[in-house]
Amino acid sequence: MKPLDLPPRPRILVVALRRLGDVLFATALIASLRRAFRQAVIDVLVFEDTARILEGNPDIDKVVTMPSRPSVWQGLVLTARLAKRYHLAVSTQSGDRPTLFALLAGRRHVGPVDDGARGALRRLALSRSVAPRPGAHRLEEMLRLADALGIARVAHLVCPGDISPPDPASMASTASWHAKVDNPDPYAVIHAAPMFQYKRWTVDGWRELASHLRARGLKVVATGGPAAAERAYLDLVWGGLPDIVRRDGQPSWAKLTHLLSGARLFVGPDTSVTHLAAATGCPTIALFGPTDPRLWGPVPAGGLDPMWEAAGTVQRRKNVWLVQHPLPCLPCQNEGCERHIASFSKCLDELRPAQVLRAVDDALASLSVVPSPSPTLPSSLAGEGEGGARE
């Protein structure tokens, strides 16, 4: 498609009003815009509680924030602040609110649309639109917006602090990069607590995993968000285990990225931190339950090709191992077996530690550096940060 006719130094707004994982996926679109419009001013509109995942992003000039539930007055003030200020506004979602902000803020506007009457109205209002493609991965949805803009795709995610490895073409190059980071003492990171209960693995599973990693000569660093309920759950998971370095509620997103980029291994459930670990190039074990990996599977450093399959015991793409317990109903895309966020998920409850440990051993065997028997956590990671990471 022919690129839009924009000024030599256009002002561009990207609207990404969803959760942390969605904002992280939007960094591929933002990087595509930056490559196409080197002299542009690129701002991003996000919710206040997701802004920090864009810390240090070199493609962004300014992050504009709004409350997730703004008052009428807050909405009016933001509308006046953005009104027709941008030559181009791109919505990353088909909903009413993000589309409306794109229409109000941009002289030209691009965004996805749904089927039906409301989608038809949005299609008429937008300068260019992207039709729905059922079954498309979230990264592909972002890159289809780049296609609609007539610009080249940048098919990788940009991490907070911009310290991702340089587009590794293979696991070997990723392992080589990890051998050169500033803090080479071997440790693994476990992020046991997703935002929603239906994405949790078992307490016994996490504890057996930690013991296995320590037996392999790795210090275990446990991360998590700052919420009281989440930290109480992590107290249950890690209570009584020796030598667990707790970092829940502490690192900022940029510091968390640094922690992940130096780890020999990361293990976590379907959460934004798992997506971040994969994007840094860290060998990543992703434990998936009801979520469809064809839509939401982690994107390895260097891009996702080929795409994930719907279900399998263990799948590998570059530096990511995706582990599932493939029941006949998997993936159902429901919020657990009871279809609410506090539900259990049988596919995760029945995921045996032995299956996860096999993937862990495979990932460790692929590294070029073998952990020493007496590791120490880098001192630079021992200090407290702020703004704890959460899904």
Structural features, described:
There is one protein chain. This protein has 391 residues and is an alpha/beta fold. It folds into two domains: 11-149, 3-Layer(aba) Sandwich (Rossmann fold), CATH 3.40.50.2000; 171-381, Rossmann fold (3-Layer(aba) Sandwich), CATH 3.40.50. The chain contains 13 helices and 13 strands.
The CATH homologous superfamily of the largest domain is named: Glycogen Phosphorylase B
Biggest sheet layout: 7 strands, mixed
So what's the oligomer here?
single chain
Termini gap: 35 Å
Q: What helical percentage do the residues reach?
A: 25-40%
Q: What is the H/E string?
A: EHEEHEHEHEHHEHEHEHEHEHEEHH
What is the domain tally? 2
Name of the top-level CATH class of the largest domain: Alpha Beta
How do the strands line up in the largest sheet? 9-8-7-10-11-13-12
Number of strands: 13
CATH topology of the largest domain: Rossmann fold
Measured by DSSP, the beta-strand proportion falls in 15-25%
Number of helices: 13
Report the CATH architecture of the largest domain.
Answer: 3-Layer(aba) Sandwich
Uncertain regions spanning at least 5 consecutive residues: 164-183, 369-388
Given helix and strand content, the structural type is alpha/beta
What is the CA-atom radius of gyration, in angstroms? 21 Å
Shape: globular
Q: pLDDT average, as an integer?
A: 88
